[in-house]
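Hey, I was hoping to borrow your eyes for a little while. I've been puzzling over a protein and I'd love to understand its fold better. The fold is given in discrete form, as structure tokens running alongside the sequence. I'd be grateful if you could look everything over and explain what you see. No rush at all, and the record is pasted right below.
>
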Amino acid sequence: MFSVLWKLGWFFKQEKKRYIIAIIVLLIANVVEIIPPWLIGQTIDAVNLKSLTEDKFKFILIVFSVTIILSYVINFLWRYLLFNGSQLLESMMRRKLMAKFLTMSPSFYEQNRTGDLMAKATNDLSAIRMTVGFGILTLVDSTTYMITIIATMAMLISWKLTLVALIPLPLLAYIEQRLGKMIHERYTVSQNAFGDMNDSVLESIEGIRVSKAFAQEEHLNHRFKAMTSEVVQKFIHVEKLDALFKPVTIIITALSFVIALGYGSLLVNKGEITVGELISFNVYLNMLVWPMFAIGMLFNIMQRGNASLDRVMETLDADDVMVDPVDHVVPDDHNVTFSRVTFQYPTSESINLTDVNIKLGTGETLGIVGPTGSGKTTLIKQILKEYPLGNGSITIGDIHLNHLTRKEVRDKIGYVSQENILFSRTVRENIKFGKEDATESEIAEAIRLANFTKDVKRLPQGLDTLVGEKGIAISGGQKQRISIARAMIKNPDILILDDSLSAVDAKTETAIINNIQSERQGKTTIISTHRLSAVQHADHIVVLHDGIIIQEGTHKELIAQDGWYKQQFNRQQLGGVS
């Protein structure tokens, strides 16, 4: 059960000063809190013996008041230290998770659902925070407080009465240990179900337009209702066990009270203890209810924290399939070469690229065309180092990608994906994502190159217009041009457009291509597209089909050949579809 604390040993070592002080103060608080019941017993005995004087009573009141105030101050201090520490751990682990999410390769997200990752970053971290805060409190307080009270009862009142009254406690410990183990198993299942539900919510929100278009709202609502009911049932299974802790604790402590009153009355009659001592004993016994109940909560909190920590550490300890080289060099040039490259996705059942050979010189433009699913995006992802390289070699500036870090590769590249992901910020902030310290003139130039100047003037707040989540507030063509401006502002050595002109009209496409040609002299450009008009100017064009280059050459050379390129060009000239 306490393995969760061992796993978090690095944090306790880092914050040892905080926890040593907190535990010492907590121990002092336990000693201070046993004084009031003892004063009550002394007062009752003094009344019975008619020895309570006015001065003695005033002294007792002063000591009682000082003890209460001191107890309040001490309790505030240890609570502040403990719970501030738990918040610190949660913040640290959330930052670690975020750093992990930002550095992992796409294959990681293919194996881990977004909803489950969100559950780990919220619910699971909250359970870990409870373990380090309330869990440490119950562990230290329940054990030391119980020992302090039991020692006081045995030494100041009667060891016989103490021994007899505590007979039921081993039974309580056994029951709570069994319940804690069952909670660990059920809590892990419930958290996994919560992750599934999160994932379903994300999919429903992201696909809301499609759902509405196909009138699937009611179906999705029923499906989500069934899923939430299942999640609730799994959490209820956990809470049913959790709900047993308090009743079990109350029943067993009530049994201790019965034993204490019965045997205590016998000892009073024998003259072994006084009435005041019996009352003090029962007050102490009542104070034992908290530590005994806390032990029950301790099992619960530790098991939940352990299950959540295992889930979070599973993500933090995940190895990335992409590992940066220790010894690396920075390329001075930006030519790109594919030499006999064969590649297969980790989850794919077939080869996705076969024996690809391409040589793109510095300052040249490469066009990548082919039917849907031919491997155009796969080829681009190889340049971006998103997946481990297959057979063959890829070089940038005559340096093998295996000798370059991902940051070095991507610093040289300006990439516009076919998804055109925008952030829920302003147009200006989305463009500056490519270069945070960009000036207003640089932003204006990037917008001009993306042929977006007129559109900016028509936006409600111009560059300060919020684009909405994933750019929902603007059109597809505007999203594409903002994405292009974001890449252009970086002025990269290598510009990659992955089917990034599909949502703009032919006139706008021509303007953007002309801007790229005129402004990127001496820089390398790679354009993947379905529209052949976007690559007619390219120095070299490759036609992919099922991951194999079936044709290559310039536009004029490919037009002169009978093949896919000529057929597709003729269709598009006549207004046909690809």
Observations:
- The first helix runs from residue 3 to 7.
- The chain has three domains: 3-316, 327-412+493-578, 418-491.
- The radius of gyration is 35 Å.
